[in-house]
Amino acid sequence: KLHSDLDKGVGTVKYTLSGDGAGTVFTIDETTGDIHAIRSLDREEKPFYTLRAQAVDVDTKKPLEPESEFIIKVQDINDNEPKFLDGPYVASVPEMSPVGAYVLQVKATDADDPTYGNSARVVYSILQGQPYFSIDPKTGVIRTALPNMDREVKEQYQVLIQAKDMGGQLGGLAGTTTVNITLTDVNDNPPRFPKSIFHLKVPESSHVGSAIGRIRAVDPDFGKNAEIEYNIVPGDGGNLFDITTDEYTQEGVIKLKKPLDFETKKAYTFKVEASNLHLDHRFHSVGPFKDTATVKINVLDMDEPPVFSKPMYTMEVYEDTPVGTIIGAVTAQDLDAGSSSVRYFIDWKNDVDSYFTIDATEGTIATNELLDRESTAQYNFSIIASKVSNPLLTSKVNVIINVLDVNEFPPEISVPYETSVCENAKPGQVIQTITAADKDLSPAGQRFSFKLSSEATNKPNFTVHDYRNNTAGIETRRNGYSRRQQELYFLPIVIEDSSYPVQSSTNTLTIRVCRCDSDGTIQSCNVEAIFLPVGLSTGALIAILLCIVILLVIVVLYVALRRQKKKDTLMTSKEDIRDNVIHYDDEGGGEEDTQAFDIGALRNPKVIEDNKIRRDIKPETLRFPRHRPPAEDNTDIRDFINQRLQENDVDPSAPPYDSLATYAYEGNGSVAESLSSIDSLTTEADQDYDYLSDWGPRFKILADMFGEEESYNPDKVT
């Protein structure tokens, strides 16, 4: 209620209200100043309101007093129950936990004013879940209420929690939530075999490493606490078997470590121990966390393939052994109760296996072809044995045959040597070390011996020194060698091996004489160097070679100029009736040169038509010495020409080698007639050869020949 001191109760004062909630939540009587709430208030929504009030004159509308501010506070009542904002809850606690073990803390919230009365004071209690768990009324902490709760008995628990305000008094509001509690596993149970003896039946044909059976121990725990390790207790038959744990099923898988044989032993007995891998020391007092069971294995008899006496056979045979020679045998037996006969045969894979045969009944291996160690030193093939009663049961064994060497190849010098000796070599100087090689397979300790052949023993040039370690040295036997006298020496060396029968060969070593300096360093081994003057320097040799080249160039130029001049002299004019004669300035290519000119134009047409047979001649194999006749025998130039012609005809080294072409036809109707003096009517007495002396040095030989012929006259007496 608002009231102004100026209000006399005559209705001259008017009250107004403004501020938070004016007109919507609160209203004021303008005449009396009474303030009323026009709707319900909620403290949890808005705990207080701030308003402003003023008294004004009804007539003048002017304020009678200054505006005043006041606060309306909402009084709380218990109209909100406690609420679990995080519920429902999930919690866990290890099994076998002691009483009072902490599980979880719950918390309820009350929206009422905690500063006014007990509306917000909450008390916790368990409505469902006793006697297993308890809760603190003030803090809401949940704890275990029973000892040794076993997960294997009951794993899940649902607890109903209540929170009540007003301190839990009658008339208070309450709220509830659910807590799901799970007991987690601990290793409080050892593994146990469901039975004490396990019986297994295993065929004797089971392969090594294969699983032959499974056993299982039961552990009620969960997860890693239920992991089991199996071990075979040492005892009867335990060394033939092994056991591992299947990580998915926690079963013990028994595997075979060694082959079984029904004929040797029919049953095995051993013990298996199962234990936990992860132990909890809190439960050691319960007892040992392991269990033991007995395993009995009965071996079943199976029809097995034959068994060879050896896992592999190795045999030896000499090369070139006659076909059909027995070199060894293999043996296989049927070890089953009803022993069956065995048949043998070669496992054919390639053509190499055809070199041997095997007796199907006895198992003896013999050669089928001649063997050559140098071609194949070792043969590797397989022999298969099968039972007669059941041919499908077979076994295989590997056979290795080594071909032994027979000494059939002589030793030879291992590599071709390029041996040289200095001209200034001294006696006893080693100029080459040689080794030998043998194509045969040399046995251990085989030696090669070296010596000179019998024909070279007495020559005083070189000798062979056998070092007796399969090497030998070539030594000089004289003081100095001369390339001018002999450039190459051929030294025959005999090499023998030590095998039986002894094989030997004679090898020729070529030794070249070279020029060396005083230290023995080779300077030159060329043949041309023999004729060079001793002591010439390199510069002098180069100068001599340059001079020779210059002289050759001058001679070539001179010959070329002479040929050009001669060509110009022999060329005839276009009006000459002999202009169809072609001049060739080259020597031609012989019979094969068919492009240079037509050889038929130089032959007599009549002779060509009459005789078209080639007049080829085959050169004789004999070589006649060519000698120049003495000047006093040149009585006739025709005899001289015929003699030269005969020499060239019988000389196979003079070209052409395969044909003889004659040019005896000079042509018909020549205006100049014949130029030959053979058919001339003029006699030798009418000829004067003095003019030959005036023709220069090129005709000096002819001038001397015919001049001597005139001076020599046997009819004249002086």
TrEMBL record:
PROSITE patterns registered for this protein in UniProt: CADHERIN_1, CADHERIN_2
Membrane association type: Single-pass type I membrane protein
Keywords carried by this UniProt record: Calcium, Cell adhesion, Cell membrane, Cleavage on pair of basic residues, Glycoprotein, Membrane, Metal-binding, Phosphoprotein, Repeat, Signal, Transmembrane, Transmembrane helix
Coiled-coil regions listed: none
GO CC annotations, alphabetized: adherens junction; catenin complex
Lineage top rank: taxon: Eukaryota
Protein localization: Cell membrane
GO biological process: adherens junction organization; calcium-dependent cell-cell adhesion via plasma membrane cell adhesion molecules; cell migration; cell morphogenesis; cell-cell adhesion mediated by cadherin; cell-cell junction assembly; homophilic cell adhesion via plasma membrane adhesion molecules
InterPro entries: Cadherin (IPR039808), Cadherin-like_dom (IPR002126), Cadherin-like_sf (IPR015919), Cadherin_CS (IPR020894), Cadherin_Y-type_LIR (IPR000233), Catenin-bd_sf (IPR027397)
Keyword Cell membrane: yes
All copies of domain Cadherin, residue ranges: 4-84, 85-193, 194-308, 309-413, 413-531
One Pfam family recorded for the sequence: Cadherin
Role, per record: Cadherins are calcium-dependent cell adhesion proteins. They preferentially interact with themselves in a homophilic manner in connecting cells; cadherins may thus contribute to the sorting of heterogeneous cell types.
Protein name: Cadherin-12
Originating organism: Dasyornis broadbenti (rufous bristle-bird)
Lineage: Eukaryota, Metazoa, Chordata, Craniata, Vertebrata
